[in-house]
Each structure stands twice: as structure tokens, then as C-alpha cells.
Amino acid sequence: MKRTIEEAFRTPLHFLRSVKRRLRLLVFRLGNLRKEKFECPICHYIGPFEDVNRITGPRKHAACPGCGALERHRHQYLVVRAILDSLDASQMKMLHFAPEDCLKGYFCQRFGSYETADLDMNGVDYHVDLQNLPFPDSTYDLVFASHVMVCIPEDGKAMREIRRILKPNGMAILPDPVSSEITIEYPEPNPYEGYNVRAPGFDYFDRYKLYFSRVEKYSSRSWPEKYQLFEYEDRRRFPSAECPLRPAMTGERHEDVVPICYA
Ligand SMILES: [Zn+2]
Fold first, then answer.
1. Which residues have beta carbons under 5 A from ligand 1 (an ion)?
2. CATH of domain 70-223+245-262
3. CA-CA distance, 135 to 125, in Å (whole number)?
4. What is the pLDDT along the chain (263 residues), one digit of tens a residue?
């Protein structure tokens, strides 16, 4: 069979990338032989996860070194996979806001139609404001927007718009970081917290009930420990100079929540 020039170069390039990735994983494993081992449901890597150091502080056992998926990504993947188990996604249309690289491949493969959107991210299909969407009513079967609401002051407007563009049997998956026991609104976006406009609490997901007929919540506790879906973060140090309104939280192992909002 005749190959195009692009295909001829693509194969060795893919091969080299694969070798580089395997070498990196091997070095990481050798350097972390005594660390606890986990399993990534997305890329099937088994071994220690990487600790990360983010703007709000360090988190242990956070990132899969195979695909880069964080605690919340692995949790969201498990939830979507469980939901799609009983559905024919090849007939479904999905809109993915602020698309995460580690989830894009799976969504693109499973859904008959897969589109991406963001306010200003490069490489998406639509540059749109979630509070004022240009799409007709009842367009999508699934809207996915993770850690997006937490940056929107008038989040009710965004919820109303998402509900509007969902088909009658559609659903929206709208997780936000739980960083407080009870939701605290900030007067302005905080650059030291990724421009978040609030510290969402476990009560935050109740707001979705004003716009959607039913809200179902999945917890990190719903899944086997081997996937490591908890955020190991010392939140006793808040409030801080950079995050003056973020409250302290007890414990160093924090639950992640994935809410499913049904139209
Ligand atoms: Zn992975």
C-alpha cells in the first residue's frame, strides 16, 4: 500500500514519542520505588502517582505520570464511563468546555459528535461566553464543564444557558473544586486561586437544582481506592495573605464531587 509523506513521518515520530514516554515512566518508577502504587483508569498505568506543586500548595499522589490526569480527571472519567455504559453515545452530541487533554481522546472516540468551547483557549471549536451561548435550544446531549463555574460571578446565568442548550433527555456534568465546608463568595477573582470567584462548599451543587430537574452526586468515596481520587492537601494553612477569604479545612485528604445535572 502506498503511504503519504505525512503518514511515513507520523509513524516514526509516534514511535519516538512512545519510547520517550516509556523511558520517562521507567525513570519515574525507579526514583519512586517505595511510594504507594495506584492505577489510572484512563491510560491503565499502574505505579506511583506524581506529587504536584500548584499555586495553592503541594498535593501528593495527584498526577498520573502516564497521561497527566489529576485526581478530578480520573474521577470524572470513571463517572462518564459508568453513565455511558447504558447509553449509545455514537448517537449523542457533546460539548466540552475548557477541554482537558487527558479526557479529549476518550470523549472524541465515544461520542458521535464532539465539539469544544472556551472563552479564550486556543484550538477549540467555539470561542463563547458560557453566560450567553450562541447555540440554539436543545442542541446537545451532554455538556461538560469542569472547574469552570468557579470562575463565573453570575453562575446562575451560565447554568440557565447550559440547561437551555441541552436536549430534553440531556445532562450536564459541572464539577467544581470543593475548597470550603460552606460556599464563600469573593468580591473579585483571586489570581492566587486561578481567578476563582468563590470557595465552593459541599452545598454549592444545590444551586444546580434551581435550573435542572435532578442532580445526582458522585463522591471520591464511591470508587476503589486504587484509582486515588482524593486531594491530599494541607488546607489548615488557610486563610493566607494570598487567599484571605479561603477558609481552613480540617484533614489532609479531601473528597472530590462530580455532579450530574439532568435536564
Ligand atoms: Zn493516566
1. 40, 42-43, 45, 64, 66-67, 69
2. 3.40.50.150
3. 13
4. 445 555 555 677 888 888 888 898 889 989 998 999 999 999 999 999 999 998 778 999 999 999 999 999 999 999 999 999 999 999 999 999 999 999 999 999 999 999 999 999 999 999 999 999 999 999 999 999 999 999 999 999 999 999 999 999 999 999 999 999 999 999 999 999 999 999 999 999 999 999 999 999 999 999 999 999 999 999 999 999 999 999 999 988 999 999 999 99
Give distance in angstroms: CA of 41 to centre of ligand 1: 7
Give me the residue spans of the domains in the chain.
70-223+245-262
Query: Rounded to the nearest whole angstrom, what is the distance from the C-alpha of residue 257 to the centroid of ligand 1?
Result: 19
Q: Is the peptide bond before 191 cis (omega within 30 degrees of 0)?
A: no
C-alpha cell at 217: 452526586
Amino acid at 52: V
Q: Cβ atoms within 10 A of the Cβ of 222, count?
A: 13
For the chain, the helix, strand and coil percentages under 3-state DSSP, each to the nearest 5: 30, 25, 40
Q: Please tell me the distance between residue 187's alpha carbon and the centre of ligand 1 in angstroms.
A: 37
Provide the whole-model pTM.
Answer: 0.91
